[in-house]
Amino acid sequence: MKPASFAYIRPETQDEALSALAEHGDDALVLAGGLSLGAMLNMRLAFAETIIDINRIPALNRIERVDESLRTGAMVRQADALKSADVSEAAPLLRLGLQNVGHYQTRSRGTLGGSVAHADPSAEIPLCLATLDGVVELASQRGSRRVPAREFADTALSTIREPDEMVEALHWPIHTGAGVAFQEIAQRHGDFAIVAVAAVIRNETEFSLGFGGVEGVPRVLDGMVGGSVEETVGAFVDELDAMDDPRASAEYRIGVARHLGVQTLRQAQELAT
Amino acid sequence: MSAKFEADARVRVNCTVNGKRHTGYAEPRTQLCDFLRHELHLYGTHVGCEHGVCGACTITLDGRLARSCMTYAVQAEGAEIGTVEGLSEPGTLNPLQRAFSDHGALQCGFCTAGILISTTYFLADNPMPSEQEVREMLSGHLCRCTGYEGMVRAILSVAGGGS
Hints:
The complex is a heterodimer.
Chain A: E1 7-10, H1 14-24, E2 28-31, H2 37-42, E3 50-53, E4 63-66, E5 69-73, H3 78-83, H4 85-90, H5 92-98, H6 104-109, H7 112-118, H8 124-131, E6 135-140, E7 143-148, H9 149-152, E8 153-155, E9 158-159, E10 166-173, E11 180-186, E12 193-202, E13 206-212, E14 219-224, H10 229-238, H11 250-272
Parallel strand pairs in A: 1-3, 2-3
Antiparallel strand pairs in A: 4-5, 5-10, 6-7, 6-10, 8-9, 11-12, 12-13, 13-14
Helix pairs in contact in A: 5-8, 10-11
Chain B: E1 3-5, E2 11-17, E3 20-26, H1 32-39, E4 58-61, E5 64-67, E6 80-82, H2 95-102, H3 112-125, H4 131-138, H5 149-158
Parallel strand pairs in B: 2-6
Antiparallel strand pairs in B: 2-3, 4-5, 4-6
């Protein structure tokens, strides 16, 4: 289908983008790679009076180490992150997650920030960020603020971003250990995950286990290594309020989450030791 | 300075397609695939699902693969675009196109333009791919005639300069 009409603004600097958002934010959508928003506009599931295209703001393409985090600008392309030595070293979980994001073709233009801002319940990038307890950096003319990734999405496809704000960067707490694992079940590789699970082990003693595609937003279990993996994961998964839709029933999602959760956490633990 | 266009504006778009400069007009909502076809009369790029799934409209945009149905023509101002028309001279086939023909890798041809663009980009990025990597790359395209076996054989036959 063809999208409904929209006005178009293409800022060349972050300041211009923030000024456009301050003026039009209530009726505007920010266009990053367009791999999610483009589809929604074309199918008329999303409407905007104004589209603010942030593809030509070079400052948003950077990957850099800042303090104890890897900071990735909102417009870092998924394909570039997948090839980045910094990502492999400092955020190996993201690298694993990215291998499941869309297809070779869509990763070429799809962005990290766009995926987090879109907040699809089954998306791998926000799941990895939440599992690592990362941070979303938001900017507006009122100033910038940092929000824990675990609090950023409030329901499916909805975040706490204010209308005049944009995602400027993501902060990935540096985790260099081998103890990371990522698994998902989808109808075909590259399709939207029915359930995705990310695991990270810290200091061989603590773990975080994140579940995507089960509830409307990623849900993360933090715990200590040791004890029965089945019981720990089972108790957490049983409390989840799973989505029920034509792709998969709530019951099926819970079953997959339990199985995949146990498997993924075990895998991360084995790799960590 | 921000570029800014009203919703009903008729925007002049200048871009380079396959090394040749083009100018056309588009509304902000005009998809790049429609601009290529209806404004620039380059009909090689096909339009399938229009939501980024089928891959028929895949082009290169400033050195990246793009679904031209989910890119808007106004975004292409000043851009370098590559489409299937740029792969060989009219009436001739490049080695990849020849291999597609030899291996029965196409039937109706609807998906082929996008697959040739993706494959050309992919082989530049990864000149000696494994069969698994080729299959994974092809998973970003839908073909409803022949299946993918012929394409896999065709691509592997030209990869790494193979015969």
